[in-house]
Amino acid sequence: MERIASFTVDHTKLRPGMYLSRRDGTVVTYDLRFTVPNTGDLLSNAQLHSAEHLFATLLRNSAQKDAVIYFGPMGCQTGFYLLVDGARLDDAGVIALMQEVCRQGAAYTGEMPGKSAVECGNYRNLDLALAKELCAAYGEIIRDWSVEKLQYQG
User: Fold this and answer.
1) Which of 35, 80, 94, 130 has a CA between 20 and 30 Å from the CA of residue 45?
2) Where are the chain's structural domains?
3) CB 104 within 8 A of CB 71
4) pTM of the model
5) 87-138 per-position pLDDT tens digit
6) Which are the contacts of 6, defined by CB distance < 8 A and separation ≥ 6?
7) Cα separation, 64 vs 62, whole angstroms
8) Alpha-carbon distances of 45 from 10, 15, 58, 79, rounded to whole Å
């Protein structure tokens, strides 16, 4: 059985940042790594869930919304995956989009998106303050990111 692409990355050398995980035709997967793997510094379920709601809402309301395919958490609790249509948005555009979404998320003043029993299967787990903190923290991590930094190191 073939190993999936994410299992070929040396997680002992992986640091927080934004990485190009794979290209499948025009679908491009980005590894949005928030914490260092295998250190116990995991994102809590409330952090993952809350950030997922805010990031996904901001991405799907951005000027590049038609390029956004999926945004969701990693099972290992160290970050998220972002899938985009690479025919609509190039690597530099994705970096700029994530930087802008982080700024918007950190400054967000509205209601927590999807925080009702009708909209979410675990709405009581959502915390806007946690989502805003993660937006601000990840925004700092990728503030000076470039296309050259998208490659995994090691």
Assistant:
1) 94
2) 5-141
3) no
4) 0.95
5) 999 999 999 999 999 999 999 999 999 999 999 999 999 999 999 999 999 9
6) 21, 31
7) 5
8) 24, 21, 20, 11
